[in-house]
Design goal:
The protein has 128 residues and is mostly helical. 55% of the residues lie in helices and 4% in strands.
Amino acid sequence: MALPSIFPERFVFSDLLLSPSHKLYFDDVPAGSIKAIAVVPWQGWAQIVFFVGILETKVFVQQSGNDMPGDYGVGYFGLVDKARHEEELSAELENGRLAMIAFFVQVFLELSSGESVGQLWIEFTQGA
């Protein structure tokens, strides 16, 4: 989650349109997780929800109820040995939990300071 917050602070996308009908450029959307919600039109959010819904209901569907969570029958880098990858799946779940905690910390920092994590990071690195 840090990359989408820091990346727009370092690089400028002033000539790329996010929404041609609203004349909204990527550069007009503030970096961070909270302020961007109000700037992006509802049609954009509807497209994102629709796309994720299609992925969840049509593309990434488990073959059997007995399969482990996240096993979509495509194997792991061409390997289908589930017992061998039990530890990797457990580590992936732990990393997902850590990412959720990091996201909530970013939201808390943005709400408490009024600045995005990217802006705070730039201030931190320039002040050091």
